[in-house]
Amino acid sequence: MIRVWRIPFSTNVERVALALGHKGLETEWVDVDRLDRTAVVEASGQPLVPVLEDEGTLVTDSTAILEYLEVRYPEPPLYPRDEARRAEAVVLIDWFNRVWKKPPNELERALSVEERVEKRIRAQVEELERSRDRFEALLADRPYMFGDEFGVVDCAFFPFLKFGVLDDPADTEPFHRILVEHLTLDGAYPRLEAWIRRVDEHPRAQ
Ligand SMILES: N[C@@H](CCC(=O)N[C@@H](CS)C(=O)NCC(=O)O)C(=O)O
User: Fold this and answer.
1) Does 123 fall in a domain?
2) Does any domain span residue 29?
3) In the chain, which end has fewer C-beta atoms inside a 10 angstrom radius, N or C?
4) DSSP 193
5) How much distance in Å is there from the Cα of 17 to the middle of ligand 1?
């Protein structure tokens, strides 16, 4: 019996289902998880469905499967009987596969790139916002980041962490706007806030 590997809602599988239905061919469907293609790779050496197996013959690619079915099971026909009309149908399907399908395929690829970027941004934002807990902990029972005295760690951290409290609207530097947006303390980090105000009192060389 003809066996076909499929995933739910597949457009290319539906092409084959229509052709098999037209020819009245009984089919054993192998349902595959969309996210786990192990069975498809094992059967055909590649991950895409549909894959058709028929008496030891393995065919991948929906268009190739339609062609195979027509040759192996000519009745009732799916392709025109007339040679020129058949060639026209083949050219039309080739246009559909290689030209028409390109924009939706590219849109799908762009969407997944966008999703990946969004996910990375979310992860970075979370890490940045979570870092306030660490600074708050570093300031437990001491006035400065590394101990009782002002020192190198305060020099290194302050110009960045100050944006949690000190926001000069005239400073439109994008990097600083990011720090203001994601470090704002809103009263939830009292030690860090006190440290920012404390270090801000220290002299700068003029
Ligand atoms: N040219 C192949 C394309 C097959 C294809 O792209 N199949 C889709 C389902 S419609 C698939 O398996 N996509 C992989 C995925 O979604 O991970 C054909 O016409 O059969």
Assistant:
1) no
2) yes
3) C
4) H
5) 14
Render pLDDT for 84-136 as a digit per residue (tens, 0 to 9): 999 999 999 999 999 999 999 999 999 998 998 999 999 999 999 999 999 99
Claim to verify: residue 72 and residue 137 sit in the same structural domain: no
3-state secondary structure 19-48: HHHHHCCCEEEEECCCCCCHHHHHHHCCCC
Is 67's C-beta closer than 6 angstroms to any atom of ligand 1? no
Q: What is the CATH number of the domain that holds 67?
A: 3.40.30.10
Residue 38, domain extent:
2-79
Tokens of 149: 């005295």
CA–CA distance, 160 with 138 (Å, rounded to integer) = 16
- Tell me which of 51, 79, 107 is where a domain ends: 79
Co-location of 137 and 71 in the same domain: no
Prediction pTM value? 0.67
Q: How far is CA 38 from CA 16, 28, 41, 58, 121, in A?
A: 21, 18, 5, 16, 31
Number of folded domains that form the chain: 2
Assess whether the C-beta atom of 112 lies below 6 angstroms from ligand 1.
Answer: no
